[in-house]
Amino acid sequence: MQQTTGTGFIGGGNMAEALIKGLIASGMPVEKLMVAELQPERREYLQRTYGVVVSADSNEIVAQNEVIILAVKHQGLEKALLPVADLFTNSKCLISILAGVATAKLEAMVGDNVPVIRVMPNTPALIGAGAAGISAGRHATVEFMDLACDLFRCVGLVEVVAESLLDAVTGLSGSGPAYVYMMIEALADGGVLEGLPRSTALMLAAQTVAGTAQMVLESNEHPAVLRDRVCSPAGTTIAAVQVLERNGLRSALIDAVQISARRSREIR
User: Fold this and answer.
1) Residue 235 sits in a domain of what CATH number?
2) In sequence order, what are the residues at sequence separation of 6 or more whose Cβ sits closer than 8 angstroms to the Cβ of residue 164?
3) What is d(CA 130, CA 18) in angstroms, rounded to the nearest whole number?
4) What pLDDT shows up at residue 4?
5) In the chain, N or C terminus with fewer CB closer than 10 Å?
6) Which residues are registered as beta bridge partners of 30?
7) Phi/psi of residue 10, each to 5°?
8) Alpha helical stretches, state H, the chain
């Protein structure tokens, strides 16, 4: 990956930790990573676990790094960003992972000529299996976009999309792990109902979802084609698929993506 003069995090939560872990694994020197985190226990954990420089002062992070990743909760945006806004210049890049916060709003806060990039990652980044949509603000250069893509590829797949589509990304992959967890739980419950031990049912359900997803990614075939190969005439699977269709599984998932995307738009 491209090397930077330093990457700093404002906020040291789970997503920041996932990126730190991925960046170190990809070969970034730990001394090039800094984290501003208000909670002393979290600062101590990140420093002890990863060896990164930690601070309670965001000013230090912004002043000393070229790339700043904003990784706070949506409600903490102004408190986190406004005190350091004057430290941003056009030689620094602000990368935000906040759902629903447009690059235009961030540009207005830090300066209209500052490169701003918006990313919507998801929690499987914690194990290096994330999926992220990424969009450039008005002043984000090709170089900074390439760098941002490299950063997030350290923890999973990256797709460049128009910013107008990031709410859809939020509804699909940003919130999507919750839908899949529910599916795994329900599949395991079905196995338990049929007599399987809970631990066995859960492992079989989780591996079935993981393996099926991997087949979609590696085969380059439409999921419907792969599904049809499992559905033998008059067999067990087609009977089960009929029940899923009758009970609206697909419609429920489509609706879930849509309502999550709508909520993302409302956050503004």
Assistant:
1) 1.10.3730.10
2) none
3) 9
4) 54
5) C
6) none
7) -100, 105
8) 14-25, 40-50, 58-64, 77-81, 103-110, 142-153, 166-169, 176-193, 198-219, 223-230, 236-246, 249-267
Q: Tokens 């797709």 appear where?
A: 159
Q: pLDDT of 242-253, one tens digit each?
A: 999 999 999 999
- Provide the 10 A C-beta neighbour count for residue 182: 11
- What was the pLDDT predicted at 55? 93
| CA–CA distance, 61 with 84 (Å, rounded to integer) | 9
Which of the residues in the chain have pLDDT under 50? 1-3
Same domain, residue pair 254 and 147: no
Q: Which helix (DSSP H) or strand (DSSP E) does residue 33 occupy?
A: strand 33-36
Closest among 133, 87, 135, 132 to 114, alpha carbons compared? 87
d(CA 4, CA 227): 44
Q: Is residue 1 part of a domain?
A: no
Domain enclosing residue 195, as ranges: 176-267
CB-CB neighbours of 62 under 10 Å: 24
